[in-house]
């Protein structure tokens, strides 16, 4: 067992982590430390393995080699999947969707307590959706639905929060509100990782960045990692793997 003091500053350690689909690596030999309480952006081109990395951290995908080390329970993780992965046709109300965030306090099939109901309504108020309780989630705009998912994360109260492209197709006002919630989580000492494509957002709001192009291009202070040289390198890696899939006709 490692030194308890040293380990307490580490939320999650990635050790030579490789993740693949049908033997094609999506994340390649990634090693590094996600410090407890850090606020990290994961940036990189399409297909760089960003979503696969988050799914592996939450245990939805298994590493093909290497390891993820931490002392966390499944309930310590809050996860916001990419919007495209969520089925909004399910006939469930806004309030019930938010209440799903309290499953770790609630016993299966137990009645929701009035305290939990109040917390869910408070969370909806915090994301600017007071009065939306009874609306079906299918009737919301993309931005309103993203606010609902943030309210659910607020209720879930997890120590480690993983967000996959939380602001894609979301307008400026909503993004600002949700970024404030992210900053609040950081202020409270939670560990936050967010996959982002907007480099201005990364530089303005995320002190740490992991720049991924299947392998690590840079990982550390955002100002150092998001250099022109690193971004060029990430783009060049992406072009290489696109060439491998479909070479242009000569
Ligand atoms: N379920 C799957 N089955 C097979 N291959 C997959 C699967 N999911 C992802 N991949 C492949 O793994 C690689 C990494 O995909 P991933 O979604 O992790 O990248 P990403 O960086 O999140 O991309 P984007 O920015 O486009 O969302 C891609 O080549 C993708 O085609």
From TrEMBL:
All copies of domain ABC transporter, residue ranges: 12-239
GO biological process: zinc ion transport
Entry similarity comment: Belongs to the ABC transporter superfamily.
Domain of life: Bacteria
Keywords associated with the record: ATP-binding, Ion transport, Nucleotide-binding, Transport, Zinc, Zinc transport
InterPro entries xref list: AAA+_ATPase, ABC_transporter-like_ATP-bd, ABC_transporter-like_CS, Metal_Ion_Import_ABC, P-loop_NTPase
An annotated Gene Ontology molecular function: ATP binding
Name of the protein described by the UniProt record: ABC transporter nucleotide binding/ATPase protein
Gene3D superfamilies for the chain: P-loop containing nucleotide triphosphate hydrolases
């Amino acid at each position: 067992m490692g030194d308890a003091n040293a380990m307490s500053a580490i939320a999650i350690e990635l050790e030579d982590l490789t993740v693949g689909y049908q033997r094609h690596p999506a994340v390649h030999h990634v090693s590094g430390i996600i410090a407890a309480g850090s606020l990290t952006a994961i940036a990189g081109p399409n297909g760089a393995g960003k979503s696969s990395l988050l799914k592996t951290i939450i245990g939805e995908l298994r590493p093909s080699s290497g390891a993820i080390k931490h002392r966390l329970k499944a309930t310590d993780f809050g996860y916001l999947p990419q919007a495209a992965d969520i089925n909004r046709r399910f006939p469930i109300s806004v309030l019930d969707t938010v209440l799903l965030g309290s499953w770790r306090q609630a016993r299966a099939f137990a009645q929701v307590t009035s305290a939990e109901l109040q917390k869910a309504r408070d969370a909806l108020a915090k994301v600017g959706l007071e009065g939306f309780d009874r609306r079906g989630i299918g009737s919301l705009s993309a931005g309103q639905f993203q606010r609902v998912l943030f309210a659910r994360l607020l209720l879930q109260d997890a120590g480690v929060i993983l967000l996959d492209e939380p602001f894609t197709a979301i307008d400026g006002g909503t993004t600002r509100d949700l970024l404030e919630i992210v900053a609040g989580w950081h202020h409270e000492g939670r560990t936050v990782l967010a996959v982002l494509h907007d480099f201005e957002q990364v530089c303005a709001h995320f002190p740490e960045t992991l720049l991924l192009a299947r392998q690590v291009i840079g990982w550390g202070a955002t100002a150092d990692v998001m250099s022109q040289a690193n971004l060029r390198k990430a783009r060049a890696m992406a072009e290489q793997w696109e060439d491998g899939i479909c070479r242009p006709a000569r």
